[in-house]
Amino acid sequence: MSNEPKIVQKAPYSLNLEMKKYWWCSCGESKNQPFCDGSHKTTPYTPLMFQINEPKQVWLCGCKRTKNQPFCDGTHKNL
Ligand code: FES
């Protein structure tokens, strides 16, 4: 297994999220992208919990290389 998280897609997930907590998949192995499904247990990575305080549209990183987890920061354009 590589030392880096798996690149799921070289683009963000555009989602309308409601007010609650979410767990963003940081390992890239989840089958429920961009959210955690427990698959990280076979990897060195852990999911990132984040809270949405008002319903809004977000762009969650799909390449798992962002420096602004869990949000896309444009890094995917250079992969
Ligand atoms: S999808 Fe990862 S930085 Fe944009």
Model description:
The protein contains no helices and 4 strands. The mean pLDDT is 96. By secondary structure, it is mostly beta strands. The strands form 2 sheets. The protein has a two-stranded antiparallel ribbon. Strands 2-3 form a two-stranded antiparallel ribbon. 0% of the residues lie in helices and 25% in strands. It has one domain (13-78). It has strands spanning 13-17, 20-24, 48-52, 56-60. It is globular and about 35 Å long. FE2/S2 (inorganic) cluster binds at residues 11-12, 61-63, 65-66, 72-76.
Got a strand count? Answer: 4
Distance between the termini: 19 Å
Order of helices and strands: EEEE
Compute the average pLDDT. Answer: 96
> What structural class should be given to the helix and strand makeup?
mainly beta
Q: Describe the strand arrangement of the main beta sheet, using strand numbers.
A: 1-4
Oligomer: single chain
CA radius of gyration: 12 Å
Low-confidence segments: none
List each distinct ligand once.
Answer: FE2/S2 (inorganic) cluster
Task: Looking at this protein, list some descriptive labels.
0% helix; 79 residues; binds FE2/S2 (inorganic) cluster; two-stranded antiparallel sheet; two-stranded antiparallel ribbon
Please render the helix and strand layout as text.
Blueprint: E1 13-17, E2 20-24, E3 48-52, E4 56-60
Antiparallel strand pairs: 1-4, 2-3
This protein binds FE2/S2 (inorganic) cluster.
Q: Concise description?
A:
The chain is mostly beta strands and 79 residues long.
